[in-house]
Amino acid sequence: MYHSTKKAIHILLHPELGDTRWDKILNAFIIALIILNVSAVILETVQPIHDRYAGFFHIFDTVSVIIFTIEYLLRVWSSNHDPRFSHSLHGRLRYMLTLDAIIDLLA
C-alpha cells in the first residue's frame, strides 16, 4: 500500500505522467492559488485595502504557505518513484537539486 500510495501521489503531482480528472483538478487548484497569491500581493500594496483586510491577507498567506509546503514535501517524498531518483535518500536529494524543485522551494 505504501508504494501504491507513493506512486499515486507522484502521478497526481506530475500531470504530465497521468491524465486523470484529479490531477487536472489539483493542477488547476495550484495554478489558481498562485494567481490569487500574486493578486493578494498586489492588493496589499494599496494602503486602504491593506488596512481594511490585513487580517484576511495574513490568514490567506498562512494557509497558502501551508498548502505549498505540503505540496513540496509530497513531491520530495514521492520523487523516488521516478527511476531517475530511485535511491531513497540520494534520489530525493538529487530531486531537490533539480531546477523544478528549487523553483518550487523558492516560490
Question: Can you characterise this structure?
Answer:
By secondary structure, the protein is mainly alpha-helical. Helix content is 79%, strand content 0%. The protein has helices at residues 2-13, 21-44, 47-78, 88-96, 99-106. Helix 1 packs across helix 3 and helix 2 (21-44) packs antiparallel against helix 3.
Strand content is under 5%
Largest sheet: none
Q: Assign the structural class, choosing from mainly alpha, mainly beta, alpha/beta, alpha+beta, or little secondary structure.
A: mainly alpha
Quaternary state, please?
single chain
Coarse morphology: elongated
Q: Report low-confidence residues grouped into runs of 5 or more.
A: none
Tally of strands:
0
- What value does the average pLDDT take? 89
The rounded distance between the terminal residues' Cα atoms is 32 Å
Helix content: over 70%
